[in-house]
What does this fold into?
Amino acid sequence: MTTTMARLRYQGVALDKADGEVADALQRVVRAYTTGRTFRAVSQSPWIETGHDSGHIECTTCGSSGIPKVIRRPYMTWQKTFELNRQIFGLTAADRSAIFGGLNHSLALYGVCESLHLGMECDFVTGMRPRAQAMQLQAAGTTVLYITPTQLRLLTGSGETLPSVRLILCGGGKLDAKTRERAGRYCPAATIHEFYGASETSFITLADAGTPEGSVGKAYPGVTIAIRNAHQGVGEVWVSSLYLFSGYAAGGSEETRTDGDFMTVGELGFLDPSGHLWLCGRRSRMVTIADKNVYPEAVEALLSQYSDSGVCAVIAAPDASRGHILHAFIQGHPDPLQEKTLRRLITEQLGSGMVPRRFWFLPEFPLLSAGKADLKRLEDYLKT
It folds into this structure.
């Protein structure tokens, strides 16, 4: 056990010598995972709780709506993907990984568990500033990153080159072209694989350099995707695989439904003839503007690509005459020229009906621990 602890580092310190609540939580993950004990990641101290049974991993997540839920899954649903990733990406005990999110974020917890399972050394750099993270990864010779688009944007914004990184596994949101290009410059030896999934489903698709811009890729090995109840070519995304969770240990979501071996989390999209999945947005976020179905995520994708910061979100608000109007939130200081450019691009690419009524520029952008926009806090701006 001591040897295993020493292969993990917390903010540059070997885990068996590290102090603090997060280091203690990481130690509990190691002890639980290596003995098969059930453990739960929670959204506040002590961060990791050990259960009384065995064989299950539980993740507590609030999601962008702020409603807490606990996802329960058997160890084997992740371990099957660990073995697949060993084959797909050539992961070995010679690799060294880096984890950026909090333990209550499923991607970060997944990265820690996969590193333990495959015998990789692992650096947990959450809580460090981006430049300090980069310096730590340089010193460690890190080869694999488990990271969200927002975290990758911040890391590469430090300006430090990471020549030893060979693989970037990016999930938890859409990776915009600007961040992908910058990651290519600062991680010149890296292959970037964006994946789409949910805490309930684990992997659904995997994208690479050959994936068309805007698509989230083709089905991950062992996943079957079906589009149901399609209207004008767009329908609900249903998936079947051996990686699905077993149910909610607490809370839940009306969007998550099952039908035999298939499950949906309420995402809408379509498959092209080549099998690439294209997402339009969550069913719960779809609104009507001037009698047309509109997906705020489509505007978010465009803003993330063309805004200076790339950090953004779009909120729909009720409107008596049009049904709804959109509000755009962008990290940064007010910039009339940038706003004018963005309005023009949205009009040209998505249509005038998709142009937000107002642009809000926020120097401090509210994010969840998973690196996603905190939509609930952003909605509060509309009430003031």
Summary: DSSP finds ten helices and 25 strands in the chain. The radius of gyration is 21 Å. The chain has a mean pLDDT of 90.
